[in-house]
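User: Teach me something about this protein's shape.
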Amino acid sequence: MVVFVGCGGSETPTPLPSPTPTAPPIETLTPLAEETLPVTLDAPTQAAAVPATPTVSELTVDDQETRCNTDYDMDLAGYPDLYARMGCAVGASSHEPVAINEFGEGPEYNRFMLWFSSEGLIYVLFPEQTWQSYRDTWDESQPELSCNPLNAPPTSPPLPRRGFGKLWCSIETLQQQLGLIEREERLCQHAVVQTFERGRVLACFEDATIRYFSLFNDGSWQLMTVR
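Assistant: First, the predicted structure itself:
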């Protein structure tokens, strides 16, 4: 260390500063890798392991939504506590067609198939609140009804058809987990899909009803219906 002394210095030496105590090293935590959406491409696999009835913890919100760089679609304004539940939007919204089919007994359905046209994927929402996606391999050259396990005149309903039906027929466990359909598959009259920090949201508009499907990155899903 070099000590500088000004001109006309005193005989009394300038005291050196006391050494600053060195703080103990701070442990550096390795960030967890970003979770990947559990997408099955050509062969079905088990969805991400989650509890039968997953508990979704809400984010701690600092009431500063302005920290988000991307605005959420205004068609999602009816989703209660959107920012608190899903975090910031991380991508622009899409209005591409989305098809929907309910399975099992209604009117409060708890199992669905959703077809996202922009991705060519079918999302299966299971009654235990988990979801899994599969590649849609059906095309117009194939029959609308892929199988008929009922040994009765094939009709839809009760049998799913097109891509939903092919998937339902190809994976025997889906027939057991989902059951039959009471309503025909159809496109949402208006669909909005947007990706957020914790997953994606689909708003499916039908008549005077909006169904908000939340597909979380941990493999769980939730449904909120606004009438």
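Now, about its shape. Residues 75-96+191-227 form one domain. The radius of gyration is 28 Å. If you'd like, I can walk through any region in more detail.
User: That's plenty for now, thanks!
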